[in-house]
Amino acid sequence: MTDVNGTDGHDGRHGRSLSVDRRSFLKTTTAGAGLTALAGCADDDDDEITLGALYIMSGFASLYGEEAERGYELAVEEINANGGIDGQEVDVIARDTEGDTDAGIRQMRSLIEEDGVDGLFGLDSSGVAQGMAPQIQAEQMPMMVTHAATPFLTSPEGEHENSVGNEWIFRNSVDLSINMYGAAQVADELDADEWATIGADYAFGYETWDYFQAFCEGLGVDVEFTAEQYPALGTSDYSPYINSVLNEEPDAVITPLWGADLTTFVGQAEEAGWFDEIDYTLMTTGLGAELTTDGQTLPVGEHAATRYDPFVPDTPENNTFRETYFEEYGRLPNYNAEGAYRAVYLYKEAIEAVGTDPEALRDHFTGMEHTGPAGEYEFAENTNQATLPAVWGEVSASDEYDDNVLDPVDLYEVTPQEMRDTLDAAGSDLPAGL
């Protein structure tokens, strides 16, 4: 575990407006890109490089699509201001998956067959990503997943009955299994004997609880698991579920609620006195949401995870990305913004190395090493999952950025073999996904 203290508030808030010489800044900054351009190999016959983005842009989880859009638009602006990809401008065509598998498949096919994109990235919903995986393989187009976190997406087909991983799917963000490995480490450090969960009634909610229990058992964390509540996605009234958990009187609760579901839950939980009665609440996607429904920030002092921290690692790449993003949009980048930003740069590096042939890109991504705002990592060759650490910390409020931050923040690093050994020690058949 690496112990890192995040940067907290000073005073004031930077404005949203840009300086007059912004493009000059983008041309001179190297840290924002975070990549070294390789020898030019892009196809010279095309006027531009086109990538397809697939995110939820409407409904309860639209905030994630909006953040992703900010991230990839910033990457496109930087790349084009610095000469594009081998002299060719890059463009991103975005489509709304609507959080629905059929819509996602339809939009993906349109991007490939009608728009002729050179690569794909995105996907927010684990269920949608799992449902699309066979079609991604059939289309034989690289898909860089930046958000959907189910381990079954990168677990090779045949490893588990729910595994759908294949050679065309890559993920550049922390997945659920890595996140829950970190959560179990956090649980081991807390004075909490009884744990409960409240998560959405679909794969991500159930998988979070399953992996959390397995890693706690495999790591020898001496706790009991009690209440389970699974409200439907888009629930507006959480009071029955909140009361059911409170009646069980657990010491701690882990919740993978996300998007508007998390913000709605937090607002109603505060009204019910949840944070006075429950000693610890671990929000597995806490720093992916900006504000609760009543306009208040997330509860300070509670524990939350993020798949990218804008202050960690403390590197030129990350610091420049954070400040450039904040200057552009007046807010800190969340993990979906950073994942989308980094996906465009991953394609830049790969296309400059091998061109736009899908098989060549697939082969280049396999085992690829990369440095960006999230730090240094590589794609594990058996799963195509990025080897990133779990990021957990305590929710704090930054006056400088007028936003939630994690302070202190801890990184929990784990190797693929350590993941498998821990699951084996728990007697679990869940795949590591890493």
CATH architecture of the largest domain: 3-Layer(aba) Sandwich
Q: What is the total tally of β strands?
A: 15
Q: What is the CATH H-level superfamily of the largest domain? A: Response regulator
Count of alpha and pi helical runs: 13
What is the CA-atom radius of gyration, in angstroms? Answer: 21 Å
Sheet of most strands:
8 strands, mixed
Mean pLDDT: 88
How many distinct domains?
Answer: 2
Helix-strand string: EHEHEHEHEEHEHEHEHHEEHHHEEEEH
User: What's the CATH class label of the largest domain?
Assistant: Alpha Beta
Strand order of the largest sheet: 1-15-14-11-10-9-7-8
Low-confidence stretches: 1-45, 291-295
State the helicity in percent bands: 25-40%
Category from helices, strands and their pairing: alpha/beta
Residue fraction in strands: 15-25%
CATH fold call of the largest domain? Rossmann fold
Question: What do these coordinates show?
Answer:
This protein is α/β, with parallel strands linked by helices and about 425 residues long. The chain has two domains: about 20-175 and about 315-380, Rossmann fold, CATH 3.40.50; about 175-305 and about 390-425, Response regulator (Rossmann fold). About 40% of the residues lie in helices and about 20% in strands. It has 13 helices and 15 strands. It has helices at about 20-30, 60-80, 100-115, 125-140, 175-190, 205-220, 240-250, 260-270, 275, 315-330, 335-355, 360-365, 415-425; strands at about 1-5, 50-55, 90-95, 120, 145, 170, 195-200, 225-230, 250-255, 280-285, 305, 370, 375-380, 390-400, 405-410. The strands form three sheets. An eight-stranded mixed β-sheet has the order 1-15-14-11-10-9-7-8, sandwiched between helices. A five-stranded parallel β-sheet has the order 3-2-4-5-6. Helix 5 (about 175-190) crosses helix 6 and helix 11 packs across helix 12.
